[in-house]
Amino acid sequence: MTAPGRAPGPRPLLNRRLAEFGTTIFAEMSALAVRTGSINLGQGFPDTDGPEEVREAAVRALRDGRGNQYPPGPGVPELRTAIAAHQRDRYGLGLDPDTEVLVTAGATEAIAASLLALVEPGDEVIALEPYYDSYAACIAMAGGTRVPVTLRPRDGAYVLDLDELRDAVTDRTRVILLNTPHNPTGTVLTRAELAAVAELAVERDLLVVTDEVYEHLVFDGEHTPIATFPGMRERTVTIGSAGKTFSFTGWKVGWVTAAAPLVTAVRSAKQFLTYVSSGPFQYAVAEALALPPAYFDGLREDLRAKRDLLGSGLAAAGFEVYRPAGTYFVTTDIRPLGEPDGFAFCRALPERCGVVAIPNAVFYDHREAGAPFVRFAFCKRVDVLEEAVSRLKGLAAT
C-alpha cells in the first residue's frame, strides 16, 4: 500500500518530457505584483477592454443563443469566412474557409496542435531564441528536439543571423518555428530575411510554423507573411489571434491558416485538445475582423506612443533600451545599472520600485545569453505607464 502523501511507484508523476518546465515565470511575477501591490509590466495583457461594439457583439451572440452549445469543430462559418477575407484583403492570400482555416483556443493551442501534429520523436524544430515559453514545452510534448537560433542585440535592435540559421538545419530538421513580430525582442523580420528563410525551407523541404499574432502591432517596417513567398503556400502553417489585436485576451480565440492537407493534420491533433471553445466569442471576433482600417491604424498609433513613453522612461532610469519595431514589449539591458542577473533584478524590483518585469533568460536555452536582459510590457493605460516611469526613476539615483 502506498504511504499517505506519497506518489505510487518509483517514477516521478510528471511526464519526464515536461520535467524542465515548472510554473511559468508569468504566473510567478504576476503573483508577486499582487502580493507587493506593484505595477505589472510583466505579463502581456492590456488593462482596458477592446472596442465596445465587439464586446456587444459577444453579448448579442450569447442572447441569441449562437455558440452557447458546441460550435463546429473547425470554427463557426462566420469566423472562418472573416479570417479568410482578412488574409485575402491584407496579404493577397486566397484561402478556402471550409478547408484552409481552423479556429483554436487562442494561439497557444494553435502552436500546440501544430507541433503535436507535425513533429515526431527525433525530429528537430528550429526556433528563434529568445522564444515564447510555450514553444519549448510543445516541442517537448511532441517528442521533438528544439534547436535554438539566437537573435542577438546589435545597433539597438535584435538581429537574425541567416548563416547561423542555415547551419542549424540538419537531415533531422522538420520545422522552422518563426515568430514575427517577435516576442520578446520586438524584432520584425524584413522581407529580405523572410525571403532567405523561405528559400532555405524550399531547398531543404522543411515545414514552417509561423506565429504572427502581433501582425497589426508593427511600428517600424511592415509585416509580411512568409506564406506569400514562392514555394511557401503549401508548406506554411500561419497562426493568428484576436487577443492581441482586439484586447480581449481572455476570450482565447486564435486560428490556423494553411493549405488543406496541413489544416487537416493540425485539426487531427486539435480535436483531442479542446475540441471546441469560445463559441459566442467566435461570432464577435468575426465582426471585429471587419472593423474599418481606422481601428487598426488607431491601435498601432496608440501603442507606438506608449512604446515611446515607456522606452524614454526606461532610458532615463539608466537601462539600455532596445527599441521594438513591433509587439507591445520592450527589452532592456540592465548592465548599465550595475546589474548582471535578470532573475535577481526582477525579483527585487517590486520592493525597490513597485514595478514588475520579466527576465528574458526564461526565453533562452542558452540562459547566459539572456541573463542581463529584462522585458517590460507597454500595453497599459498611459497613466499607469507614467506612474511606472516615475517609480523607475529611482534606479538612476541608486
General description of the model:
This protein is α/β, with parallel strands linked by helices. Helices cover 41% and strands 16% of the residues. It contains 14 helices and 15 strands. A 7-stranded mixed β-sheet has the order 2-10-9-8-7-3-4, with helices on both faces. The protein starts with 24 loop residues before the first helix and ends with a helix.
Question: What's the SSE blueprint?
Answer:
Blueprint: H1 25-36, E1 39-40, H2 52-64, H3 77-91, E2 101-104, H4 106-118, E3 124-129, H5 133-141, E4 145-150, E5 152-154, E6 157-159, H6 162-168, E7 173-179, H7 191-204, E8 207-211, E9 236-241, H8 243-246, E10 254-257, H9 260-270, H10 279-288, H11 293-316, E11 320-322, E12 329-333, H12 342-353, E13 355-356, E14 358-359, H13 367-370, E15 373-377, H14 382-396
Parallel strand pairs: 1-13, 3-4, 3-7, 7-8, 8-9
Antiparallel strand pairs: 2-10, 5-6, 9-10, 11-12, 12-15, 14-15
